[in-house]
Amino acid sequence: MSSPSSLDELIEALRALPSVGPKSAQRMAYHLLQRDQRGAGRLARALAHALEVLRHCERCNTFSETDICQRCANPQRDHSLLCVVEMPADLAMMEQTQLYNGLYYVLMGRLSPLDGIGPRELRLDKLLARASDGAVKEVILATNFTNEGEATAHVIAELLAARGVRVSRLSRGVPVGGELEHTDSGTIAQALVERRAL
Amino acid sequence: MSQKQRVDQQPGFVLHTHPWRETSLIVEVFSRDHGRVAVVAKGARRPMSALRGVIMAFQPLLLDWSGGGEMKTLVRAERCGGQPLLAGRALMCGYYLNELLVRLTAREDPHAALFDAYARAIATLGRGEPQEPVLRRFELALLRELGYGIGLASDSDSGAPLDPRADYVYIIERGPVPLPEDAGDLPATSGQTLLDMERDDFSRPETLVQSKTLLRMLINHYLGGQILQSRRVLKELLEL
Protein backbone atom coordinates (compact mmCIF):
# COMPACT_ATOMS: atom_id res chain seq x y z
CA MET A 1 0.00 0.00 0.00
CA SER A 2 2.16 2.82 -1.24
CA SER A 3 1.09 6.44 -1.00
CA PRO A 4 1.45 8.93 -3.87
CA SER A 5 4.96 10.21 -4.18
CA SER A 6 3.96 13.87 -3.80
CA LEU A 7 2.47 13.00 -0.39
CA ASP A 8 5.63 11.16 0.62
CA GLU A 9 7.68 14.12 -0.51
CA LEU A 10 5.61 16.53 1.58
CA ILE A 11 5.95 14.32 4.67
CA GLU A 12 9.69 14.05 4.13
CA ALA A 13 9.96 17.83 3.64
CA LEU A 14 8.09 18.57 6.87
CA ARG A 15 10.72 16.60 8.77
CA ALA A 16 13.12 19.48 8.15
CA LEU A 17 11.35 21.26 11.02
CA PRO A 18 13.05 20.88 14.41
CA SER A 19 11.82 17.98 16.55
CA VAL A 20 9.39 16.75 13.89
CA GLY A 21 9.68 13.01 13.35
CA PRO A 22 7.97 10.82 10.76
CA LYS A 23 4.74 10.50 12.80
CA SER A 24 4.31 14.24 13.39
CA ALA A 25 5.21 15.00 9.78
CA GLN A 26 2.52 12.63 8.58
CA ARG A 27 -0.04 14.21 10.91
CA MET A 28 0.85 17.71 9.68
CA ALA A 29 0.65 16.66 6.04
CA TYR A 30 -2.79 15.06 6.46
CA HIS A 31 -4.02 18.08 8.38
CA LEU A 32 -2.84 20.58 5.77
CA LEU A 33 -4.19 18.60 2.82
CA GLN A 34 -7.46 17.42 4.32
CA ARG A 35 -8.59 20.04 6.82
CA ASP A 36 -6.90 23.29 5.91
CA GLN A 37 -6.07 23.63 2.24
CA ARG A 38 -6.25 27.43 2.41
CA GLY A 39 -3.80 27.44 5.30
CA ALA A 40 -1.55 25.10 3.32
CA GLY A 41 -1.60 27.49 0.38
CA ARG A 42 -0.74 30.41 2.60
CA LEU A 43 2.08 28.49 4.22
CA ALA A 44 3.51 27.49 0.84
CA ARG A 45 3.37 31.06 -0.50
CA ALA A 46 4.73 32.63 2.69
CA LEU A 47 7.62 30.18 2.80
CA ALA A 48 8.50 30.67 -0.85
CA HIS A 49 8.28 34.45 -0.48
CA ALA A 50 10.35 34.56 2.70
CA LEU A 51 13.02 32.37 1.14
CA GLU A 52 13.17 34.69 -1.82
CA VAL A 53 13.30 38.08 -0.11
CA LEU A 54 14.89 37.49 3.32
CA ARG A 55 18.58 37.76 3.90
CA HIS A 56 20.83 38.74 6.80
CA CYS A 57 21.19 42.47 7.47
CA GLU A 58 24.73 43.49 6.66
CA ARG A 59 25.02 45.39 9.93
CA CYS A 60 23.05 43.50 12.57
CA ASN A 61 22.91 40.02 11.01
CA THR A 62 19.21 39.60 11.72
CA PHE A 63 16.69 38.75 8.98
CA SER A 64 15.91 41.63 6.70
CA GLU A 65 14.35 42.25 3.30
CA THR A 66 16.90 44.90 2.48
CA ASP A 67 20.69 44.86 2.63
CA ILE A 68 20.48 47.02 5.74
CA CYS A 69 17.43 46.50 7.94
CA GLN A 70 15.08 49.34 8.93
CA ARG A 71 16.36 49.43 12.48
CA CYS A 72 20.00 49.77 11.47
CA ALA A 73 19.08 52.45 8.92
CA ASN A 74 17.06 54.49 11.41
CA PRO A 75 18.94 57.75 12.17
CA GLN A 76 16.85 58.24 15.34
CA ARG A 77 18.59 55.32 17.02
CA ASP A 78 21.81 55.69 18.98
CA HIS A 79 24.56 54.38 16.70
CA SER A 80 27.15 54.46 19.48
CA LEU A 81 25.49 51.57 21.36
CA LEU A 82 25.59 48.00 20.08
CA CYS A 83 23.73 45.25 21.90
CA VAL A 84 24.78 41.67 21.17
CA VAL A 85 22.07 39.00 21.49
CA GLU A 86 21.93 35.32 20.58
CA MET A 87 18.68 35.09 18.61
CA PRO A 88 16.09 37.40 16.99
CA ALA A 89 13.68 36.44 19.82
CA ASP A 90 16.12 37.99 22.29
CA LEU A 91 16.22 41.17 20.23
CA ALA A 92 12.40 41.31 20.34
CA MET A 93 12.55 40.98 24.13
CA MET A 94 15.09 43.83 24.42
CA GLU A 95 12.85 45.99 22.22
CA GLN A 96 9.89 45.28 24.51
CA THR A 97 11.69 47.06 27.34
CA GLN A 98 11.30 50.31 25.32
CA LEU A 99 14.37 51.47 27.18
CA TYR A 100 17.04 50.71 24.68
CA ASN A 101 17.51 52.94 21.69
CA GLY A 102 20.81 51.62 20.38
CA LEU A 103 21.48 49.09 17.64
CA TYR A 104 21.85 45.31 17.74
CA TYR A 105 23.96 42.50 16.53
CA VAL A 106 22.28 39.08 16.38
CA LEU A 107 24.71 36.15 16.60
CA MET A 108 22.16 33.57 15.41
CA GLY A 109 23.58 31.12 17.92
CA ARG A 110 26.01 30.77 20.78
CA LEU A 111 29.41 29.34 21.39
CA SER A 112 29.25 25.69 22.37
CA PRO A 113 32.71 24.17 22.59
CA LEU A 114 31.49 20.59 23.14
CA ASP A 115 29.31 20.75 20.04
CA GLY A 116 32.16 22.20 18.02
CA ILE A 117 30.47 25.58 17.60
CA GLY A 118 33.35 28.02 17.78
CA PRO A 119 34.18 31.50 16.54
CA ARG A 120 34.30 30.35 12.94
CA GLU A 121 30.83 28.77 13.02
CA LEU A 122 29.46 31.92 14.74
CA ARG A 123 31.14 34.27 12.27
CA LEU A 124 32.60 36.34 15.10
CA ASP A 125 34.86 38.10 12.60
CA LYS A 126 31.74 39.80 11.20
CA LEU A 127 30.79 41.07 14.67
CA LEU A 128 34.33 42.30 15.30
CA ALA A 129 34.28 44.26 12.06
CA ARG A 130 30.85 45.68 12.92
CA ALA A 131 31.89 46.74 16.42
CA SER A 132 35.06 48.44 15.30
CA ASP A 133 33.41 50.66 12.68
CA GLY A 134 34.33 53.77 14.67
CA ALA A 135 30.77 54.82 15.54
CA VAL A 136 30.27 52.18 18.24
CA LYS A 137 31.35 53.44 21.66
CA GLU A 138 29.97 50.66 23.83
CA VAL A 139 29.05 47.03 23.21
CA ILE A 140 26.41 45.62 25.57
CA LEU A 141 26.57 41.83 25.84
CA ALA A 142 23.06 40.44 26.28
CA THR A 143 23.73 36.77 25.60
CA ASN A 144 21.86 34.32 27.81
CA PHE A 145 22.94 33.59 31.37
CA THR A 146 23.61 29.95 30.56
CA ASN A 147 27.11 28.52 30.48
CA GLU A 148 27.15 28.78 26.68
CA GLY A 149 25.89 32.37 26.82
CA GLU A 150 28.52 33.23 29.41
CA ALA A 151 31.26 31.62 27.33
CA THR A 152 30.08 33.58 24.29
CA ALA A 153 30.06 36.83 26.28
CA HIS A 154 33.52 36.16 27.68
CA VAL A 155 35.04 35.48 24.30
CA ILE A 156 33.48 38.53 22.65
CA ALA A 157 34.50 40.71 25.60
CA GLU A 158 38.12 39.59 25.34
CA LEU A 159 38.25 40.10 21.59
CA LEU A 160 36.67 43.56 21.77
CA ALA A 161 38.70 44.70 24.76
CA ALA A 162 41.84 43.84 22.79
CA ARG A 163 40.54 46.25 20.12
CA GLY A 164 39.89 49.02 22.63
CA VAL A 165 36.07 48.85 22.53
CA ARG A 166 34.17 49.45 25.80
CA VAL A 167 32.23 46.32 26.73
CA SER A 168 29.49 45.82 29.31
CA ARG A 169 27.30 42.88 30.29
CA LEU A 170 23.64 42.83 31.30
CA SER A 171 23.48 42.52 35.07
CA ARG A 172 21.74 39.62 36.74
CA GLY A 173 20.09 38.95 40.06
CA VAL A 174 16.78 38.66 41.82
CA PRO A 175 13.93 39.25 39.34
CA VAL A 176 11.91 42.46 39.52
CA GLY A 177 9.06 41.97 41.97
CA GLY A 178 10.74 38.78 43.19
CA GLU A 179 10.67 37.59 46.77
CA LEU A 180 13.73 35.89 48.14
CA GLU A 181 11.60 33.12 49.61
CA HIS A 182 10.48 32.07 46.15
CA THR A 183 13.70 32.71 44.25
CA ASP A 184 15.97 29.77 43.40
CA SER A 185 19.14 29.50 45.45
CA GLY A 186 21.38 29.70 42.38
CA THR A 187 20.03 33.14 41.50
CA ILE A 188 20.40 34.35 45.08
CA ALA A 189 23.94 32.96 45.30
CA GLN A 190 24.91 34.79 42.12
CA ALA A 191 23.19 37.99 43.26
CA LEU A 192 25.23 37.80 46.45
CA VAL A 193 28.48 37.32 44.54
CA GLU A 194 27.64 40.26 42.27
CA ARG A 195 26.07 42.53 44.92
CA ARG A 196 26.65 46.24 44.55
CA ALA A 197 27.31 49.05 46.96
CA LEU A 198 24.55 51.60 47.60
CA MET B 1 20.75 -5.62 33.47
CA SER B 2 17.48 -4.07 32.47
CA GLN B 3 15.53 -4.33 35.70
CA LYS B 4 13.99 -1.09 36.88
CA GLN B 5 16.22 0.69 39.30
CA ARG B 6 15.91 3.92 41.12
CA VAL B 7 18.80 6.11 42.23
CA ASP B 8 18.21 8.76 44.88
CA GLN B 9 20.17 11.81 45.94
CA GLN B 10 23.15 10.97 43.81
CA PRO B 11 25.87 13.64 43.71
CA GLY B 12 26.58 14.54 40.12
CA PHE B 13 27.53 17.19 37.58
CA VAL B 14 26.01 17.94 34.19
CA LEU B 15 28.65 17.44 31.50
CA HIS B 16 26.60 18.23 28.42
CA THR B 17 23.01 18.54 27.23
CA HIS B 18 21.26 17.97 23.92
CA PRO B 19 17.75 19.16 23.09
CA TRP B 20 15.36 16.24 22.79
CA ARG B 21 11.89 16.38 21.28
CA GLU B 22 9.95 19.59 21.74
CA THR B 23 10.63 20.48 25.37
CA SER B 24 13.05 17.92 26.82
CA LEU B 25 16.77 17.55 27.25
CA ILE B 26 19.11 14.60 27.15
CA VAL B 27 21.58 15.26 29.93
CA GLU B 28 24.98 13.66 30.12
CA VAL B 29 25.68 13.37 33.86
CA PHE B 30 28.89 12.48 35.68
CA SER B 31 27.79 10.93 38.95
CA ARG B 32 29.86 9.80 41.90
CA ASP B 33 28.67 6.21 42.25
CA HIS B 34 27.40 5.40 38.74
CA GLY B 35 29.92 7.18 36.55
CA ARG B 36 28.70 8.80 33.38
CA VAL B 37 24.99 8.28 32.73
CA ALA B 38 22.55 9.73 30.21
CA VAL B 39 19.22 10.89 31.62
CA VAL B 40 16.19 12.45 29.96
CA ALA B 41 14.99 15.60 31.68
CA LYS B 42 11.38 15.72 30.55
CA GLY B 43 9.99 19.17 29.97
CA ALA B 44 13.26 20.80 31.04
CA ARG B 45 13.03 23.32 28.21
CA ARG B 46 9.58 24.58 29.12
CA PRO B 47 9.64 28.22 30.24
CA MET B 48 8.41 27.44 33.75
CA SER B 49 10.25 24.16 34.29
CA ALA B 50 11.72 23.82 37.75
CA LEU B 51 14.68 22.06 36.13
CA ARG B 52 15.54 24.96 33.85
CA GLY B 53 17.91 26.82 36.13
CA VAL B 54 19.19 23.65 37.80
CA ILE B 55 20.39 21.58 34.83
CA MET B 56 23.59 23.56 34.38
CA ALA B 57 27.11 22.36 33.92
CA PHE B 58 29.75 23.06 36.59
CA GLN B 59 27.24 23.07 39.45
CA PRO B 60 27.22 20.34 42.12
CA LEU B 61 23.80 18.70 41.98
CA LEU B 62 21.88 15.97 43.75
CA LEU B 63 20.01 13.85 41.23
CA ASP B 64 17.28 11.22 41.37
CA TRP B 65 16.69 9.07 38.34
CA SER B 66 15.00 5.81 37.44
CA GLY B 67 15.18 3.28 34.66
CA GLY B 68 17.35 0.31 33.79
CA GLY B 69 18.20 0.89 30.14
CA GLU B 70 20.96 3.04 28.75
CA MET B 71 18.73 6.11 28.95
CA LYS B 72 17.39 6.92 32.43
CA THR B 73 14.61 9.30 33.35
CA LEU B 74 15.51 12.20 35.56
CA VAL B 75 13.08 12.41 38.46
CA ARG B 76 14.53 15.27 40.42
CA ALA B 77 17.54 17.57 40.41
CA GLU B 78 18.56 20.08 43.02
CA ARG B 79 21.59 22.18 43.63
CA CYS B 80 23.80 21.29 46.52
CA GLY B 81 26.09 23.97 47.78
CA GLY B 82 27.08 27.31 46.43
CA GLN B 83 29.58 26.92 43.65
CA PRO B 84 29.98 30.29 41.91
CA LEU B 85 29.33 30.09 38.17
CA LEU B 86 32.50 29.65 36.18
CA ALA B 87 33.36 32.70 34.17
CA GLY B 88 35.81 33.67 31.50
CA ARG B 89 38.82 31.45 30.96
CA ALA B 90 37.87 29.22 33.88
CA LEU B 91 34.67 28.41 32.02
CA MET B 92 36.60 27.42 28.89
CA CYS B 93 38.79 25.17 31.07
CA GLY B 94 35.63 23.63 32.50
CA TYR B 95 34.44 22.73 29.00
CA TYR B 96 37.76 21.04 28.37
CA LEU B 97 37.41 18.90 31.51
CA ASN B 98 33.86 17.97 30.53
CA GLU B 99 34.92 16.95 27.07
CA LEU B 100 37.71 14.76 28.45
CA LEU B 101 35.17 12.97 30.65
CA VAL B 102 32.68 12.56 27.81
CA ARG B 103 35.27 11.17 25.44
CA LEU B 104 37.43 9.07 27.73
CA THR B 105 35.10 7.53 30.32
CA ALA B 106 32.71 4.69 29.52
CA ARG B 107 29.02 4.91 30.40
CA GLU B 108 28.06 3.58 33.84
CA ASP B 109 31.63 2.91 34.86
CA PRO B 110 31.88 4.37 38.38
CA HIS B 111 35.01 6.35 39.29
CA ALA B 112 34.43 7.87 42.72
CA ALA B 113 38.03 9.10 43.04
CA LEU B 114 37.83 10.76 39.63
CA PHE B 115 34.52 12.32 40.60
CA ASP B 116 36.18 13.84 43.67
CA ALA B 117 39.08 15.08 41.54
CA TYR B 118 36.59 16.68 39.13
CA ALA B 119 34.60 18.31 41.96
CA ARG B 120 37.85 19.71 43.40
CA ALA B 121 38.95 20.99 39.98
CA ILE B 122 35.63 22.77 39.39
CA ALA B 123 35.65 24.29 42.88
CA THR B 124 39.23 25.54 42.37
CA LEU B 125 38.36 27.00 38.96
CA GLY B 126 35.34 28.68 40.57
CA ARG B 127 37.57 30.38 43.12
CA GLY B 128 39.54 31.94 40.30
CA GLU B 129 42.84 30.24 41.18
CA PRO B 130 45.49 29.65 38.48
CA GLN B 131 44.05 27.23 35.95
CA GLU B 132 47.05 25.39 34.54
CA PRO B 133 47.84 23.32 37.69
CA VAL B 134 44.13 22.44 37.98
CA LEU B 135 44.09 21.09 34.42
CA ARG B 136 47.32 19.11 34.85
CA ARG B 137 46.16 17.55 38.14
CA PHE B 138 42.89 16.52 36.60
CA GLU B 139 44.48 15.10 33.43
CA LEU B 140 46.83 12.99 35.53
CA ALA B 141 44.05 11.85 37.88
CA LEU B 142 41.93 10.93 34.84
CA LEU B 143 44.63 8.83 33.17
CA ARG B 144 45.47 7.06 36.41
CA GLU B 145 41.86 6.46 37.40
CA LEU B 146 41.10 4.99 33.97
CA GLY B 147 43.81 2.45 34.65
CA TYR B 148 46.49 3.62 32.26
CA GLY B 149 49.13 3.19 34.98
CA ILE B 150 51.19 6.30 34.53
CA GLY B 151 54.51 5.53 36.27
CA LEU B 152 56.41 8.65 37.21
CA ALA B 153 58.74 7.55 39.99
CA SER B 154 61.24 5.18 38.41
CA ASP B 155 63.16 4.46 35.21
CA SER B 156 61.02 1.88 33.44
CA ASP B 157 64.10 0.19 31.93
CA SER B 158 66.23 -0.29 35.00
CA GLY B 159 63.68 0.27 37.75
CA ALA B 160 66.06 2.76 39.36
CA PRO B 161 64.59 5.86 41.02
CA LEU B 162 64.52 8.91 38.73
CA ASP B 163 67.40 11.35 38.91
CA PRO B 164 65.91 14.85 39.26
CA ARG B 165 68.81 16.31 37.25
CA ALA B 166 68.61 13.86 34.32
CA ASP B 167 66.38 14.09 31.24
CA TYR B 168 63.94 11.36 30.29
CA VAL B 169 61.70 10.39 27.42
CA TYR B 170 58.27 9.06 28.30
CA ILE B 171 57.39 5.97 26.29
CA ILE B 172 53.63 5.41 26.09
CA GLU B 173 52.47 2.36 28.05
CA ARG B 174 55.94 1.84 29.46
CA GLY B 175 57.10 4.91 31.31
CA PRO B 176 60.14 7.16 31.49
CA VAL B 177 63.47 5.97 30.08
CA PRO B 178 66.74 7.94 30.02
CA LEU B 179 66.90 10.34 27.07
CA PRO B 180 68.98 8.62 24.38
CA GLU B 181 71.86 10.49 22.75
CA ASP B 182 70.14 10.44 19.35
CA ALA B 183 66.75 11.50 20.71
CA GLY B 184 66.14 13.90 17.83
CA ASP B 185 62.96 15.91 18.47
CA LEU B 186 61.54 13.54 21.10
CA PRO B 187 60.20 15.76 23.90
CA ALA B 188 62.50 15.50 26.90
CA THR B 189 61.08 15.66 30.39
CA SER B 190 63.33 16.31 33.35
CA GLY B 191 63.43 13.86 36.24
CA GLN B 192 62.47 16.74 38.50
CA THR B 193 59.26 17.35 36.51
CA LEU B 194 58.28 13.67 36.66
CA LEU B 195 58.96 13.54 40.41
CA ASP B 196 56.99 16.78 40.92
CA MET B 197 54.05 15.28 39.03
CA GLU B 198 54.28 12.12 41.15
CA ARG B 199 54.19 14.28 44.30
CA ASP B 200 51.37 16.45 42.92
CA ASP B 201 53.55 19.54 43.10
CA PHE B 202 53.01 21.90 40.16
CA SER B 203 54.65 24.96 41.70
CA ARG B 204 57.72 25.02 39.41
CA PRO B 205 57.12 26.81 36.07
CA GLU B 206 59.22 24.20 34.25
CA THR B 207 57.08 21.42 35.71
CA LEU B 208 53.95 23.16 34.40
CA VAL B 209 55.35 23.54 30.89
CA GLN B 210 56.82 20.04 30.58
CA SER B 211 53.90 18.25 32.23
CA LYS B 212 51.53 19.98 29.80
CA THR B 213 53.45 18.60 26.81
CA LEU B 214 53.71 15.14 28.35
CA LEU B 215 50.06 14.90 29.42
CA ARG B 216 48.85 16.22 26.08
CA MET B 217 50.81 13.51 24.29
CA LEU B 218 49.33 10.83 26.58
CA ILE B 219 45.78 12.14 26.28
CA ASN B 220 46.01 12.38 22.49
CA HIS B 221 47.19 8.78 22.46
CA TYR B 222 44.25 7.53 24.53
CA LEU B 223 41.78 9.66 22.54
CA GLY B 224 42.82 7.54 19.57
CA GLY B 225 42.48 10.26 16.96
CA GLN B 226 39.32 11.93 18.31
CA ILE B 227 39.59 15.70 18.06
CA LEU B 228 38.84 17.67 21.22
CA GLN B 229 36.35 20.30 20.08
CA SER B 230 36.93 22.49 23.13
CA ARG B 231 40.65 22.59 22.37
CA ARG B 232 39.98 23.44 18.71
CA VAL B 233 37.59 26.24 19.68
CA LEU B 234 40.12 27.69 22.12
CA LYS B 235 42.81 27.56 19.45
CA GLU B 236 40.58 29.33 16.95
CA LEU B 237 39.86 32.03 19.50
CA LEU B 238 43.53 32.69 20.03
CA GLU B 239 43.90 33.12 16.27
CA LEU B 240 41.21 35.82 16.01
From TrEMBL, chain A:
Residues 80-175 form the Toprim domain. One of its GO terms (biological process) is DNA repair. PROSITE patterns: TOPRIM (PS50880). Keywords: DNA damage, DNA recombination, DNA repair, Metal-binding, Zinc, Zinc-finger. SMART domains: TOPRIM. Pfam families: RecR_C (PF21175), RecR_HhH (PF21176), RecR_ZnF (PF02132), Toprim_4 (PF13662). A zinc finger (C4-type) spans 57-72. The keyword Zinc applies. InterPro entries: DNA_Rcmb_RecR, Rcmb_RecR, Rcmb_RecR_Znf, TOPRIM_dom, TOPRIM_RecR. This is Recombination protein RecR. The lineage of its organism: Bacteria, Pseudomonadati, Pseudomonadota, Betaproteobacteria, Rhodocyclales.
Automatic annotation (TrEMBL), chain B:
Keywords: DNA damage, DNA recombination, DNA repair. One of its GO terms (biological process) is double-strand break repair. Gene3D superfamilies: Nucleic acid-binding proteins, Recombination protein O, C-terminal domain. InterPro entries: ARFGAP/RecO, DNA_rep/recomb_RecO_N, NA-bd_OB-fold, RecO, RecO_C. GO terms for cellular component: bacterial nucleoid. Pfam families: RecO_C, RecO_N. Residues 9-78 form the DNA replication/recombination mediator RecO N-terminal domain. The keyword Zinc does not apply. The keyword DNA repair applies. HAMAP family: RecO. NCBIfam families: reco (TIGR00613). Involved in DNA repair and RecF pathway recombination. Belongs to the RecO family. This is DNA repair protein RecO. It comes from Aromatoleum tolulyticum. The gene is recO.
